[in-house]
Amino acid sequence: QQQVKQSPQSLIVQKGGISIINCAYENTAFDYFPWYQQFPGKGPALLIAIRPDVSEKKEGRFTISFNKSAKQFSLHIMDSQPGDSATYFCAAADSFKAAGNKLTFGGGTRVLVKP
Amino acid sequence: DAGVTQSPTHLIKTRGQQVTLRCSPKSGHDTVSWYQQALGQGPQFIFQYYEEEERQRGNFPDRFSGHQFPNYSSELNVNALLLGDSALYLCASSFRDRAGGYTFGSGTRLTVV
Q1: Cβ atoms of residues A56 and A45 within 8 Å
Q2: How far off is chain A from B105, nearest CA to CA, in Å?
Q3: What is the tens place of the pLDDT at every residue in B21-69?
Q4: Cβ separation of A101 and B97 shorter than 8 Å?
């Protein structure tokens, strides 16, 4: 059962443009929503994370928007750079679960930033 | 500061064989989680170890087993390998069994032929 759905699967953006990736979740117990960046041959690295008590969080060129009622959240990459070319994963977790807090990942979005 | 260390980086095995993958957590971390990442897909949770016990398990068969040692390092064992077990196996460490603060290793690429 895929509990976190991510779209699009891939996107191409020009240097300086905005990349937007969307995710939707089903489990209302989820209360922690991180985004990970993964380069080929490497493990995922935490980019930015949000909890449902805020609707937006910004760190540098990366912004998460969160809509609790719609059970959706998105990542915006502003002023996209060629070095941002990577695969991005959204994830979700129930951080108050008694034990064993696993991350449930979306399917990933491959982003290519053209110079 | 050493991050999460996984070994080996690559491995080729034959169907039916057994394999052991190893993980050393980031300094200060005491919880290890294992994920399987098939090509072109998101990581799938296998299980998590905290205080040398399996705390939670994903939808994986009993062929997948693990262990955590007193120094917090961990092993993932897979028996009776299938072609479908070919994937990148990721180890992630964290402090306590919390989802926040995960640090992933670079993974072990397992190919089953």
Answers
A1: no
A2: 5
A3: 999 999 999 999 999 999 999 999 999 999 999 988 999 999 999 999 9
A4: yes
